[in-house]
Structure formats: structure tokens, C-alpha cells
Amino acid sequence: MATLRIISDDDPTLRKSSREVGEITPRIIQLLDDMIETLHEYDGCGLAAPQVGVLRRVAVVEVEPGTIYELINPVIVEKEGVQEDIEGCLSLPGRWGITQRPAKVTVRAKNRHGESYEITGTGLLARALCHEIDHLDGVLFIDKATRMLTEEELEALREGAEEDEES
Ligand code: ZN
Known about the structure:
- By secondary structure, the protein is α+β, with helices and mostly antiparallel strands.
- The chain has one domain (12-166): Peptide deformylase (Peptide Deformylase).
- It is 30% helix and 27% strand.
- The chain contains four helices and eight strands, in the order H-E-E-E-E-E-E-E-H-H-E-H.
- The chain has helices at residues 26-42, 123-135, 141-144, 151-166; strands spanning 46-48, 58-61, 69-80, 83-87, 97-101, 104-110, 116-122, 147-148.
- The strands form two sheets. The chain has a five-stranded antiparallel β-sheet. A three-stranded antiparallel β-sheet has the order 4-5-8.
- Strand 2 and strand 3 form a beta hairpin.
- Bound molecules: zinc ion (ZN).
- Zinc ion (ZN) binds at residues 89-91, 131, 135.
């Protein structure tokens, strides 16, 4: 396994659409393994292949530590309601915005064994699934943000996080 370099939004690759995966080759398995390692290294809750410069419809999501969803050719098959929350992206470090996402989504995808499965998620899981699938179509959260957080708000968030760590 290897940690991959995450590209930032000055790289036009992030704006391209990714190709579907046909056969799940050893290269795709390797990609999944490397993406999981990279996700852990960066302490994120999701990563899409375009973020590591690979234009294939592959993503990984891990909202609950230890529960990793490997998503090959993921599609949203059902969505319900609306949630609004703060969102960020490993490709846009230090930038956070408010976005609206479905409150609940069902995603169909294949795992590394080529088996089709469905995940239904609410809250952060729903948000992460939508965010990663957007990456596969070259869409970033800043396209959907109703507004970006100000420097003061970011500062308050950072202070809040530090207090949480101390308590
Ligand atoms: Zn992202």
C-alpha cells in the first residue's frame, strides 16, 4: 500500500468526469487500498479517485472509524429531505462552506469483489456519499455552498476543536 498525493483545486483534473470501471482489475484493487491508506493518513471521511489524479468512478467513505465503504461505479438511487451543515474537502484545505445535501440517500455501488450492494445513510454519511459522488462528475462542494465560512468563523471552529480535545 502507498499513500497517494491529493491534488488541490488548481489542478484541472478535479473538474473532469471520471470513467466507469468495467472489469475490477488488480490495479483497481490497488487503487482502493492506496486510497484507504491515504484517507487514514489525511484523517478524512471520504476520498474520490480524481482527488488522487485517477479519473475512474471509485471512492471510499469512512464516517464511523472501522466501517469503510468501497464504492465502485456508485450511483444515488434514492434521496429524501434536506440537511444543511458545514462541509470541507481534502482537496481544498482550510476552506469550509455551508451546503445543503439530502437528509437521507441510498447509494448502489460495487465492492472490490464485483458484488453490487446498497448503503442507506443519513447525516454525515449521506453528506459524504453525495460529496464523493460529486467528485466523480467534476463537482466540488464550493459549487454548491450557499456561503463560505469567514476567517472569524473558522477561528471560532478551531478554538472549539481545541477545547474539545482538552476536555
Ligand atoms: Zn472532496
